[in-house]
């Protein structure tokens, strides 16, 4: 049995790991070099899939923006990347699954196959999100900006939403809400914060795929992250793929994937920064670069 002395040493080590700026081992890195152009996203690259998720017949270069703005907290030598949607953002993963109810475009980490180590052990997912001032969202709709979709496509174990979340109570739609597994009824909001204009919102989410918990770290601008929740029970089992982008849901209809109403003339976007995942199995979490 561990003595109280040993326990206290291990908690001190954990505390040190959480508070000192350091490099934790990386699982994947989606931080984009400044040499990248939108066409760089059309070919196989070290950062994101060149083939998913985007409208049928489109190329990523038609929807990626590389805005000249101050980079996010963890983009010390890398640049923000904007993801946009239009009327053409209709994803069709197969001939009988043309997703006319959605308008969507998402970046998927290149190494994230659905069964790789990014959804095993203990990992911390990092990302920053900012509004695209020139391409505002329509907050009458629900949007998914970041999510983990299970490998059998049966659920999202973690989803950052904004806008009018279908099935949720009234509230300011101009809010970032981080939900746990959406197959829970009702899905649990792990953390929420106003979606401010002109500033990056920085998230770290420690995902324990063994204990089935999620702990949220958050800050804005270039402030270091701090824990805003404990490790909360959340069923993150089922592996899968991380998505970073804009998935706009339609309004009404019987089948959200196919029937939801989408008005024409869409020109909307979200800016991302500092997308990466680190290995936290030894307690390491980066709160600042
Ligand atoms: C926002 O979406 C609603 C519902 O689809 C639509 O009626 C409205 O015209 C849209 N507003 C703008 C500014 O596009």
Automatic annotation (TrEMBL):
- What InterPro entries would the database entry show? GH131_N
Report the leader peptide range: 1-21
Tell me, what's a Pfam family for it? GH131_N
Write the record's keywords in alphabetical order, separated by commas: Signal
Start and end of every Glycoside hydrolase 131 catalytic N-terminal domain?
Answer: 26-283
Q: Where are its TM segments located?
A: none
Lineage top rank: taxon: Eukaryota
Instruction: Kindly give the PANTHER family that the UniProt entry links to this protein.
Output: GH131_N DOMAIN-CONTAINING PROTEIN (PTHR34612), GLYCOSIDE HYDROLASE 131 CATALYTIC N-TERMINAL DOMAIN-CONTAINING PROTEIN (PTHR34612:SF2)
The entry's protein name is: Glycoside hydrolase 131 catalytic N-terminal domain-containing protein
Species whose genome carries this gene? Coniochaeta ligniaria NRRL 30616
The lineage is: Eukaryota, Fungi, Dikarya, Ascomycota, Pezizomycotina
């Amino acid at each position: 049995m561990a003595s109280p002395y040993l326990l206290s040493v291990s908690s001190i080590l954990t505390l040190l790991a959480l508070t000192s700026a350091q490099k934790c081992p990386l699982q994947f890195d989606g931080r984009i070099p400044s040499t990248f152009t939108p066409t760089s996203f059309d070919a196989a690259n070290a950062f994101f899939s060149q083939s998913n998720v985007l409208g049928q017949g489109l190329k990523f270069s038609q929807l990626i923006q590389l805005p000249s703005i101050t980079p996010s907290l963890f983009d010390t030598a890398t640049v923000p990347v904007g993801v946009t949607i239009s009327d053409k953002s209709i994803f069709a993963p197969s001939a009988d699954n043309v997703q006319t109810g959605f308008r969507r475009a998402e970046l998927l980490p290149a190494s994230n196959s659905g069964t790789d180590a990014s959804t095993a052990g203990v990992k911390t997912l990092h990302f920053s999100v900012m509004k695209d001032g020139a391409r505002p969202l329509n907050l009458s709709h629900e949007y998914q900006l970041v999510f983990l979709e299970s490998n059998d496509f049966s659920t999202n174990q973690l989803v950052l939403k904004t806008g009018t979340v279908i099935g949720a109570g009234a509230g300011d739609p101009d809010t970032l809400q981080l939900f746990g597994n959406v197959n829970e009824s009702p899905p649990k909001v792990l953390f929420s914060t106003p979606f401010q204009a002109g500033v990056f919102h920085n998230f770290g989410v420690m995902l324990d795929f063994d204990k089935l918990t999620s702990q949220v770290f958050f800050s804005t601008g270039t402030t270091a992250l701090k824990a805003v929740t404990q490790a909360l029970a959340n069923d993150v089992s089922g592996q899968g793929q991380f998505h970073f982008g804009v998935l706009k849901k339609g309004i009404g209809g019987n089948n959200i994937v196919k029937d939801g109403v989408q008005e024409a003339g869409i020109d909307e976007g979200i800016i991302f920064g500092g997308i990466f995942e680190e290995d936290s199995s030894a307690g390491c979490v980066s709160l600042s670069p």
